[in-house]
Specification:
The protein is built from 1 helix and 12 strands. It has one domain. 4% of the residues lie in helices and 39% in strands. Strand 4 and strand 5 form a beta hairpin. The strands form 3 sheets. Strands 1, 2, 3, 6, 9, 10, 11 and 12 form an 8-stranded antiparallel β-sheet that branches. Strands 4-5 form a two-stranded antiparallel ribbon.
Length: 184
C-alpha cells in the first residue's frame, strides 16, 4: 500500500466511450479524445451524465473446503461474469446497430430484426476530472440493448446498452491511471 495520496483520487466528472474491433490494442489513455480517437477507435458519442457507465459483477463467491483434519484448508472461487451498462444519447444508426444489430431502410427508418444479435467490440472507457485521466480497457465485449428505452419528457432520450465482458487469452480488462506504477 502506498498510503494516503490525493493525487490518485479521481471524480469522473466527464468521460467518453470508444469502440473498436475486438482485441484492438488499447489506445493511449493520456491522449485519446472523442475528436481524435486514433486508428481503429471511434467515439460512441454523447452518453448520459445522469446514468453514467456502470460495471456490475455476478458470481465469484468463495467456497471454503475443509480437510478431515483442518478447517478452511482451501478456497475455490466461483466463475465471475462482468457487465457494463452505458446510456447512449445519440439517435444514430451506429448506436442503434449496437442495441439491435438491424438495418436502415430505404425510407430512413431503422429496422429492428425479430431476432436481435449482439455485436462484439473492444471498448475503452475514458474518465476525466480536469486534467486527471483514468481509463478502462475491455479487449472484448458483446453489446446489445439493455433495458428497454423509456420516454421521459424531462430528460434526454437514452438508448440503454449492455455489454457482457468476454475474456481473451490474456486478460479480462485493464485499468489505466498515473497512480498505477509498473513494477521495477
Amino acid at each position: 500500500m502506498a498510503g494516503m495520496n490525493a493525487a490518485n483520487v479521481i471524480i469522473p466528472g466527464r468521460g467518453a466511450i470508444f469502440l473498436a474491433p475486438p482485441l484492438t490494442v488499447a489506445p493511449d489513455y493520456l491522449t485519446i479524445t472523442p475528436e481524435a480517437p486514433g486508428v481503429d477507435w471511434v467515439s460512441l458519442g454523447h452518453t448520459s451524465k445522469d446514468n453514467t457507465v456502470a460495471l456490475s459483477k455476478e458470481g465469484g463467491e468463495a467456497e471454503t473446503h475443509d480437510s478431515w483434519w483442518a478447517s478452511a484448508l482451501a478456497v475455490i472461487y466461483g466463475a465471475t461474469k462482468w457487465n457494463v451498462t452505458i446510456a447512449a444519447l445519440q439517435m444514430e444508426a451506429d448506436v442503434l446497430d449496437l442495441a439491435f444489430n438491424g438495418t436502415v431502410d430505404t425510407d430512413g427508418g431503422y429496422i429492428v430484426p425479430s431476432q436481435v444479435e449482439s455485436v462484439d467490440k473492444a471498448m475503452f472507457v475514458l474518465a476525466l476530472q480536469g486534467t486527471k485521466r483514468m481509463g478502462l480497457y475491455l479487449p472484448k465485449v458483446s453489446i446489445t440493448l439493455g433495458d428497454a428505452p423509456t420516454f421521459d419528457p424531462t430528460k434526454m432520450f437514452e438508448i440503454p446498452l449492455a455489454a457482457a465482458v468476454l475474456a481473451d487469452e490474456n486478460m479480462l480488462m485493464k485499468w489505466y491511471h498515473p497512480g498505477i506504477v509498473a513494477p521495477i
